[in-house]
Every structure is written in C-alpha cells, then in structure tokens.
Amino acid sequence: MSNRDRQELLIVTGMSGAGRSTVGNALEDLGWYVVDNLPPQMLRPLVELAQHAGNALPRIAAVVDVRGGKLFADVKDAVETMRANANVRVLFLEATDAVLVRRFEQVRRPHPLQDDGTLLDGITAERELMQDLRSSSDMIVDTSELNIHQLATNIQERFAEAEAPGAQVTILSFGFKYGLPADADLVADARFLPNPFWNPELRPHTGLDAEVSDYVLGQEGAREFIDGYAAALAPVLAGYQRENKRHATIAVGCTGGKHRSVAVAEELATLLRGLPGVAVSVKHRDLGRE
C-alpha cells in the first residue's frame, strides 16, 4: 500500500499554551476532520473508522496532549505503530518558557501539570514528558513570536496544498544573535562572508537591495557555497519526497539577519525553485528587527 493510498492522519501535539486550539481551528477551515483531546489509544480506532468512511474523511487531525493524563505516556509507541498502517505525521508546537508563562498568566489558568507548584514547574515537567515525541516529530513550529492570526496563516500555508505532491520548502534567513530557529531542519552559516554592516554605504540597506546582494554574492567563496549547497540539497529534497516529508525549513544565518543571510537565502531559493516537485517560499525572520 503506497503512502498516497493510506489514510492521512496528522497528530497535533506540543506544549500547553503553544497554540493547539488555533491550529485545530485552522485545519478545520481547510477541511480537515479535527478531534480534540484524543487519548493515544483511540488513534487506531479513529483511523479504522475513517478508512471505512472512505472519501468522507480523507484527512484527520487528532489533538493529543498531556490533558490525557497517564494515557499520554503511550503516545510515542502508538504513533510508531500507526505509521505502519496509515500516513501519519506529527506536528509539534512549542514556545519559550517566558512566552508560555505569559500566556497562562493572561488567561489566568493553571498549567495542567502544575499541581501545587508554579507555572514554570508545570512547563518544565511537560517539556521532559514531551522530549521523545518532539524528537520524532515531522514538523516543529515555534509559536513564540506568532500571534493567533500569524499562527493560523502559518498552518494554512503548510497544509493548504497538502494534496499536491512534492515538498514545500521554506528558506528562512535569521540572525544568530537572536537565536537559532527552533523549527529549522537544516542550518547554514553565512558568517564566513565579509559583513556589509561595516561598509557605511551598505549598512542602512538589506540583503533584498541590489547593492547589498551584489556585494555579498560577489565575495570570494559565495557563489561556490551557494551552488554547492543547492546541489547538496537536491538529493535531500528528493529523499524527503520519497519519505513523504512534505515540509522542510532550511535556515540561513548571519550575525543580525539583515544582510548576508538575506542575500544568500534569496539566491538559494532561486536555485531550488528549479528542482522537480519542490515549491519554495522565502521568509526573513529578523529583517527589520534592528
């Protein structure tokens, strides 16, 4: 049975307060059948029911989280078992401790694992419980810098074309001084190139401007790196398609995410758009942050 013929199941999980409800609503808007707070032991019966329903339930999303209590401990084993019988992917939502604390304080609700401790105690306990599931997830989305509308848009962009074959690739520029992107599958470092920041004429501009782009791409080693990296990514993205990994984030970083990483990301995207079965978008996480 091919991946395309098997029932498609998306498991939405992650940290409490990271946006599972928003994701569920966004998926419903895209036509997914969404089940919230499902015990892991019910995943197989859910898929079997959907298989009997045929085209009536082509895509199912199950929100699985620590609200299931002791039942949640079996989720990783349940997911691995399900992968042999259905097209199963796991979407993991996370955010920083500070953001999660702020969100819980805003709604004045305790963390489900808080018990008699603090909010941070509950978040720490949940991270430990989620560690194995996170490591085996197909997609990780860090919602720390996203409001509910931005998160919904992110999900729509990821899954609106879910019926289309191929890989949806996001080239993401960023600044190392602001931290690594938590959802990056691959990370490249453009800091080996001279920094336009130290050129007074280029400093006010960004990697989207021709002056900066020409400067960065004209440096020794720049073209060799970009061409070589694109060539190295070709078999990786082809492998992702064979393994039904439909979404990938390729991050390119420099110091501040304004000059080098932006120029390199744009040029890399241009080259990757020529690959078969690959749809490429570009995002600049830290552009305008300075």
UniProtKB/TrEMBL annotation:
Domain RapZ-like N-terminal: 8-160
Gene3D superfamilies according to UniProt: P-loop containing nucleotide triphosphate hydrolases
Key words of the record: ATP-binding, GTP-binding, Nucleotide-binding
Binding-site residues for ATP, renumbered to this chain: G14, M15, S16, G17, A18, G19, R20, S21
Classification via Pfam families: PapZ_C, RapZ-like_N
Domain annotation RapZ C-terminal: ranges: 168-287
Residues noted as binding GTP in the record, renumbered to the chain: D65, V66, R67, G68
Protein name listed in UniProt: UPF0042 nucleotide-binding protein
Gene source species: Conyzicola nivalis
